[in-house]
Every structure is written in structure tokens, then in C-alpha cells.
Specification:
The chain is of the alpha/beta class. Helices cover about 40% and strands about 15% of the residues.
Length: about 350
């Protein structure tokens, strides 16, 4: 097993624990949608469907990138692909670097999910290396990806014992990738958020979507710090460093209204997903929550629980629309509400 692959199984175990969560308040609780006591619509006819990457989704939702490159990770991704296809939602795979380095076949993901968008994934630092563009092309081909996500994780890399500290050339590599690939490019953080200024640079480079992946959900700085044998105290002031999801979405939508935004980072349930859509996100992604539903504490896959989880989020999103008197997503985006002061 490669070092990158070995690290992936460590991440899976650590990401399930409470110690992997940011210790900040959930800012999406500040979004207060106005209750409509006379909604004048039929709950069962609430429409959540939307278009994303050339596909029609049953709701504006994506399983966020989690893992890849090991037997355990591949089994989880296989389950996620099958259930996502059944649920009619998009799937983002975890970093493909480990799988590509190990020569692992990923083609079964497209076989299991022929009807939904599948998004590939590679790190920004890896993309900036000499063979980065070629690796990205191979990652797209490996899963017949509808889009390629490049993740930005400078803080995680600093905290990671074997992390990369040379971030020169990442922006230029992303711009070259946008011109070289036949599919859209998405750029995402991994839990520290993306600012409006960085989002503007990414849009200028040709990026189609920005996934804010804000502070508030799975905290990779905390996870990587747990993996260190020493120097943990160095990272203590930075354990909850970053831009909260709410702030990232509001600022990007305000300053760059034409950029498509994916909301992730601390999305706990369907109401949070609806709140993120209301403040300006085009689609919502969640990863850590569904990882805990995909396998139990003994590492056994739990498809029934995962299906139930998706159904619960769908109902919660429908309730959010219904209780604001909105029959569909366009009406919901115009519903009354406010963002309370923290």
C-alpha cells in the first residue's frame, strides 16, 4: 500500500470521531426563514429537482468527496455510487491520487452510477507538480467524470506530518487545467473556506464552480494534528482557523453574483441545506455526515441506513420549502427571511 493510500484509512477512522469536528457555533442557525402559516401549496407536490452538470437531480445535493485508494475506501465509494444513483443526487469521489498511484481500477463507479454526475478529485499541490495535468486527465478518464474538482488544503498540508508546503504555481496550474479538460473544473476547500477574493481569482482562471467547504464541519486540521507524534502545540491556535460556511457563501454571492457556488462545511441536515440554498448556494454537498451512515463503528457497510438518511434530508428540504409557502426552488430563493446577528 502506498503512503497516500495508507493515510486514507487513518483518515476514515479519525473522521468519524467527535475530535474531528470544529468547535465553533453553527452559523447556519443564524439564517431565520420566515414561517408561512398559510402556505397555499400541497406538500407532496413540492419540487426539489434541479439541473447540475448536464443531469437532472432529484434535489440540489451532492455527496461530498471523502476518500479513495484502499480496499475499504473503494467499498465505501462503490456503495455511495450505487445509492447516489438510486437517490438521483451527485457524487464527488475522494482524492484519486492514491488510486492512480496504485493502479487501482475505478471504472466500476461509473457502472454503478450511470445516471448522475460523478466528480473527480485531485489536490491543488499535486496538480502543480510536473505530471499534475496528466494525472488530472487520467483521473477524469478513470471514472468518466462529469467534472474535475481540485481541492485546496494549505492548512491541512501544514498540519499533515507528510504534508506539502510548496504552494507555488497552483493558481497557474488550475488555469491550465480549465483550458485542457473537456469537462468543467470545480475548486473546493476541505474545511477552512474560500474567500470572495480567492473565488474571484478562480473565476478568472476559468473555474466553473467553487465549493466553499467552510469552517464548521469535519476539521482536517484537528484530524492531521492527531496523527502527529510531536509539535502538536504548534497547531493549537489554528485548530479552528478558517471562514465559516455562511460567511463564505454570503460574501461570494454578494461580490461575484455570476459564480456558481456549492455549499459544504457543517451541513447537518436538510434544513441546513435549505438555508444554504436560500443564502445563495446553487447546490449543497455533505461528506462526513454520510460517512457515518455508510458504515458502522465496526466498518460494516450499512446501505439501508444510508438510504434512510437521504430520504430524511429530502423530507427536511421539502418541509423547508412548504413552511415558507414555496412550491419549488426558484420560489424558495425569493422567500422571506433574514440572517440574524451572531
Amino acid at each position: 500500500m502506498t503512503k497516500a493510500a495508507d493515510r486514507k484509512d487513518d483518515h476514515l477512522d479519525l473522521a468519524r470521531g467527535r475530535q474531528s469536528r470544529s468547535l465553533i457555533s453553527h452559523d447556519l442557525d443564524r439564517v431565520q426563514l420566515e414561517h408561512n402559516a398559510m402556505p397555499e401549496c400541497l406538500f407532496d407536490e413540492i419540487e426539489l429537482s434541479c439541473r447540475f452538470l448536464g443531469h437532472t437531480l432529484s434535489m440540489p445535493m451532492m455527496i461530498g468527496a471523502m476518500t479513495g485508494g484502499t480496499d475499504r475506501a473503494d467499498a465505501i465509494n462503490s456503495l455511495l455510487a450505487e445509492i447516489a444513483n438510486e437517490a438521483g443526487i451527485a457524487l464527488a469521489v475522494g482524492s484519486q491520487r492514491a488510486s492512480l498511484e496504485a493502479g487501482r481500477d475505478q471504472s466500476s463507479l461509473r457502472t454503478k452510477a450511470p445516471d448522475i454526475p460523478i466528480i473527480g478529485n485531485l489536490g491543488g499541490v499535486q496538480l502543480a507538480k510536473r505530471d499534475g495535468l496528466d494525472m488530472a486527465k487520467r483521473a477524469v478518464d478513470a471514472i468518466e467524470a462529469d467534472a474535475m474538482a481540485i481541492h485546496l488544503n494549505p492548512l491541512q498540508e501544514l498540519a499533515q506530518p507528510e504534508g506539502d508546503r510548496d504552494w507555488r504555481g497552483v493558481e497557474d496550474a488550475i488555469a491550465k487545467l480549465c483550458h485542457a479538460l473537456p469537462c468543467p473544473v470545480i475548486v473546493k476547500e476541505v474545511g477552512a473556506g474560500i474567500s470572495a477574493s480567492v473565488a474571484a481569482r478562480l473565476m478568472s482562471a476559468g473555474v466553473s464552480y467553487v465549493d466553499v467547504a467552510g469552517l464548521g464541519g469535519t476539521n482536517w486540521t484537528r484530524i492531521e494534528t492527531q496523527r502527529r507524534d510531536d509539535d502538536k502545540a504548534v497547531f493549537a491556535p489554528f485548530l479552528d482557523w478558517g471562514i465559516p460556511t455562511l460567511d463564505a457563501i454570503v460574501e461570494i454571492r454578494s461580490e461575484i453574483p455570476d459564480l456558481k457556488v456549492i455549499a459544504s462545511g457543517g451541513i447537518r441536515h436538510g434544513l441546513d441545506a435549505a438555508r444554504a440554498l436560500w443564502i445563495g448556494a446553487d447546490i449543497v454537498a455533505a461528506a462526513g455526515h454520510f460517512l457515518t451512515l455508510a458504515e458502522d463503528e465496526k466498518g460494516r457497510l450499512t446501505p439501508d441506513i444510508l438510504i434512510e438518511g437521504f430520504d430524511q434530508w429530502r423530507q427536511q428540504m421539502q418541509m423547508s420549502l412548504f413552511l415558507t409557502g414555496s412550491r419549488n426552488l426558484p420560489e424558495f430563493r425569493r422567500a422571506k427571511g433574514k440572517i440574524k446577528n451572531s
